[in-house]
C-alpha cells in the first residue's frame, strides 16, 4: 500500500504574528514530501513512525470522544493498517519548520476521516475554517497548541492567505520568473528546533507591555505589509518592509535565532545583499532568506547551502 503524496510547506510570512492576528502567507513546498506506506518488516525510522501512529490513533480516539461532532474516523481500518505495519514515509526533515507533522496529519485525515471535506468541493471560508480547526486539534498531539495551518496547507496543496484568525482563503501567488535574479531561499541552520519551547518563550514575552506594543506596532505592521507586497508583486516595497521585519526579529526574537546566525542576520541588513527571517518558530531548522540578487547572496553567504524555493 502506498498513499497519495503530501508536501511540506513554507510560511513565508506570519510566524508568531498569526498567533496575534497578523496576516500570514503559507505556500506548499514540493521538494519535501511524505506518504503512508505499509511494510511487514519494519526497522529504524519506519518502526518509530509506526509506533508513533499507534499513539496518535489513541489520541484521535480521545479527540473524537471529547469533541463530539468535530470529526470522525474509520478507526477499524486505521487500527488494522497500523497493526499491519503502516508508517509515514517522509523526506520532510523534523524540527525544521516546514511542516513534517502537518503532512502526516493531512495524510491520516485524507485516508481515514469519515464525512471528510474534500479538496474537490467548493471550499468556502466556513469549510476552510472547519478544516483548520480539525487539523489544529489533530496536530496538537505533536506539539502542544497548533493553528492547523500546516496540515491545511499540505492537504490542499495551495497557497493560503491568512487575513486574520477567522478569515482564511486559498490564494494565488505571482508566477515565478525562473530567469529572475531575485529569490526566496532556505538556509539550513544545521540544527533542529522544537516548536513548543519557542512558542512558550514568545507567550512569556507577550506578558510584557513593551513587547506587546512592539508586536502590534512594528512586527505585525511589517508582516502585513510584506504579505500585501508579495501578493501584489511590489518588489521594491516588499524589500523595504522585509528589511524592517528582519531588523525587528533580530532585535526582539534573539532566542529564536541560532546564535551562530546573529552576525549573518545583521550583515544582511547592513549590506542589503539579503534579508533573513524566521521560518516557522525558529530555534533551529531552516531560516528563510530573501534577496534581489541571488548570486550576490550566495557570495555573501559563502559556505552555506541556499535552497531556492521561489524565483522572481
TrEMBL record:
Transmembrane segments: none annotated. The keyword Transferase applies. Keywords: ATP-binding, Kinase, Nucleotide-binding, Transferase. Gene3D superfamilies: 3.30.230.10, GHMP kinase, C-terminal domain. Pfam families: GHMP_kinases_N. One of its GO terms (molecular function) is kinase activity. Coiled coil: none annotated. This is Mevalonate kinase. It comes from Flagellimonas nanhaiensis. The lineage of its organism: Bacteria, Pseudomonadati, Bacteroidota, Flavobacteriia, Flavobacteriales.
Amino acid at each position: 500500500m502506498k498513499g497519495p503524496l503530501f508536501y511540506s510547506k513554507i510560511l513565508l510570512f506570519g510566524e508568531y504574528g498569526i498567533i496575534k492576528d497578523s496576516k500570514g502567507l503559507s505556500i506548499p513546498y514540493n521538494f519535501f514530501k511524505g506518504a503512508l506506506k505499509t511494510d511487514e518488516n519494519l526497522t529504524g525510522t519506519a518502526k518509530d513512525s509506526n509506533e508513533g501512529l499507534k499513539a496518535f490513533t489513541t489520541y484521535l480516539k480521545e479527540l473524537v470522544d471529547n469533541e463530539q461532532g468535530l470529526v470522525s474516523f474509520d478507526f477499524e481500518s486505521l487500527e488494522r493498517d497500523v497493526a499491519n505495519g503502516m508508517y509515514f514515509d517522509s523526506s520532510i526533515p523534523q524540527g525544521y519548520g516546514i511542516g513534517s507533522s502537518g503532512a502526516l496529519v493531512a495524510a491520516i485525515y485524507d485516508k481515514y476521516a469519515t464525512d471528510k471535506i474534500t479538496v474537490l468541493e467548493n471550499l468556502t471560508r466556513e469549510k476552510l475554517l472547519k478544516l483548520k480547526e480539525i487539523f489544529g486539534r489533530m496536530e496538537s498531539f505533536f506539539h502542544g497548541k497548533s493553528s492547523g495551518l500546516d496540515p491545511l496547507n499540505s492537504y490542499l496543496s495551495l497557497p493560503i492567505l491568512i487575513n486574520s484568525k477567522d478569515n482564511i482563503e486559498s490564494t494565488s501567488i505571482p508566477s515565478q520568473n525562473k530567469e529572475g535574479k531575485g529569490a526566496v531561499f532556505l538556509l539550513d541552520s544545521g540544527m533542529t528546533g522544537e516548536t513548543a519551547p519557542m512558542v512558550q518563550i514568545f507567550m512569556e514575552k507577550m506578558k510584557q507591555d513593551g513587547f506587546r506594543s512592539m508586536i502590534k506596532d512594528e512586527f505585525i505592521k511589517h508582516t502585513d505589509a510584506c504579505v500585501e507586497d508579495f501578493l501584489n508583486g511590489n518588489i521594491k516595497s516588499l524589500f523595504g518592509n522585509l528589511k524592517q521585519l528582519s531588523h525587528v526579529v533580530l532585535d526582539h526574537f534573539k532566542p529564536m535565532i541560532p546564535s551562530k546566525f546573529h552576525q549573518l542576520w545583521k550583515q544582511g541588513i547592513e549590506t542589503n545583499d539579503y534579508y533573513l527571517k524566521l521560518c516557522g518558530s525558529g530555534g533551529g531548522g531552516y531560516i528563510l532568506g530573501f534577496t534581489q540578487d541571488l548570486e550576490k547572496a550566495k557570495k555573501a553567504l559563502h559556505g552555506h547551502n541556499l535552497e531556492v524555493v521561489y524565483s522572481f
